[in-house]
Each structure stands twice: as structure tokens, then as C-alpha cells.
Write a structure and sequence with these properties.
Helix content is 39%, strand content 15%. By secondary structure, the chain is an alpha+beta fold. It has one domain. A four-stranded mixed beta sheet has the order 1-3-4-2.
Length: 142
């Protein structure tokens, strides 16, 4: 079984997740796409963000996920819906295609292979308990 899946995510689930995510391909709002990610992770709980990135590449999407370090992020945790696990990386949603994603990776000092590895331990930003925010960050869920 591919490493981006756990035992509870069947090939049928992956196919259905790909169909679901393809509906949001071309979104021009990262928060909108982030909410689609939340729904996909809730519907297909065996799918992590590495699996989502793999699906995005398979469908030829211009949307890329980048795993950024949680170091210095004080008001948020990185989690996936339906889990209590804290992750060391959070997902940045890059909507502007491959070159923009590569530029962002270069600025972060990581290469695509390291990023893909990171995505297996990457979550979405969630405000820490008691934190009230006026504006949600890229890919936040509640």
C-alpha cells in the first residue's frame, strides 16, 4: 500500500477523493480550497496531505501543498480533521501553479522530495484553544 495511506483508506476512497478534489481544482481562494481539504480529510480519514498532494499531481492540478515548519507559529496548531495528533508542519496552499510552488520551496530552502516527505506529517492550521482571530490564515479549519 502506498506510504501516504493508512490501512483504513481503500483504493476506492482514493478514487472518490480524487473526484471530489477535482471539483475544486482551479480555485482562486486558498481558504476555499482549505475548506475542501477539511471536507476531504473528514470524508476519507485514511488520507493525509501527502496523499492529497499525490492526487493533485495525478489530476494535473495547478494547486500544490507545501509543508512549512510550525516553528515560531504561536497561535495555531497543525492538525487534520478528526485527529488529536499535532503535526510539526502546516500546509501552505499554493494556487498559482508549479513554478510558483517551486519558487516558494526554494525560498523555504527545501526541495520537492523533502516537501513530499514532510506532507506525511503536515496538518492544517487550527487556532489554539482560547485564541480568537479576526482573519483566518491560509488553510485553517475549525
Amino acid at each position: 500500500m502506498p506510504e501516504y495511506l493508512n490501512e483504513s483508506c481503500s483504493p476506492l476512497d482514493i478514487n472518490q477523493a480524487a473526484i471530489y478534489l477535482s471539483q475544486f481544482d482551479g480555485a482562486d481562494d486558498s481558504n476555499f480550497f482549505g475548506q475542501a481539504l477539511v471536507a476531504a480529510c473528514r470524508t476519507f480519514p485514511g488520507l493525509n496531505l501527502q496523499g492529497v498532494e499525490n492526487i493533485l499531481r495525478q489530476i494535473g492540478s495547478d494547486t500544490y501543498l507545501i509543508g512549512y515548519s510550525m516553528e515560531g507559529v504561536n497561535k495555531y496548531d497543525a492538525r487534520l480533521p478528526g485527529t488529536y495528533q499535532l503535526f510539526p508542519f502546516y500546509a501552505w496552499i499554493e494556487l498559482n501553479g508549479q513554478q510558483a510552488a517551486f519558487d516558494r520551496l526554494k525560498r523555504a530552502g527545501i526541495n520537492p522530495d523533502i516537501n513530499f516527505q514532510r506532507l506525511s506529517v503536515t496538518g492544517l492550521l487550527v487556532p489554539k484553544p482560547g485564541i480568537q482571530l479576526l482573519k483566518p490564515p491560509n488553510a485553517v479549519y475549525s
